[in-house]
């Protein structure tokens, strides 16, 4: 039981550490933030037509039409 609690606490501290580290890097180096931490834009509609391969499972046709 003690080992399980230790592993759980270690996992949480790892998540907190990486969250803080990535936020700090993004603050100190804005170019790095844009390149690594933010996804690029994804074109869903071009010339009035939906691009199915870009939609994947992220958004349905009905959601896009709303």
Properties at a glance:
66 residues, mainly alpha, two-stranded antiparallel ribbon, 4 helices
Protein described:
The protein has one domain. The longest helix is centred in the first third of the chain and has 27 residues, at 2-28. Helix 1 packs across helix 2 (30-37). The protein is mainly alpha-helical. It has a two-stranded antiparallel sheet with strand order 1-2. The model has no long low-confidence stretch (mean pLDDT 82). It is elongated, with a radius of gyration of 20 Å. It has helices at 2-28, 30-37, 52-55, 61-65; strands at 45-46, 49-50.
Outline:
The protein is mostly helical and 66 residues long. It has helices spanning 2-28, 30-37, 52-55, 61-65; strands spanning 45-46, 49-50.
* Spatial sequence of strands, sheet with the most strands: 1-2
Classification by helices and strands: mainly alpha
Q: In percent, how helical is the residue content?
A: 55-70%
The helix count comes to 4
Bulk shape = elongated
| Order of helical and strand elements | HHEEHH
Largest sheet: 2 strands, antiparallel
| First and last CA, distance | 50 Å
Topology:
Blueprint: H1 2-28, H2 30-37, E1 45-46, E2 49-50, H3 52-55, H4 61-65
Antiparallel strand pairs: 1-2
Helix pairs in contact: 1-2
């Amino acid at each position: 039981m003690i080992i399980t609690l230790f592993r759980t606490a270690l996992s949480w501290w790892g998540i907190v550490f990486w969250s803080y580290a990535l936020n700090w890097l993004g603050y100190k180096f804005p170019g790095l933030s844009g390149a690594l931490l933010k996804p690029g834009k994804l074109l869903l509609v071009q010339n009035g037509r939906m691009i199915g391969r870009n939609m994947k499972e992220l958004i349905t046709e009905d959601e896009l039409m709303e």
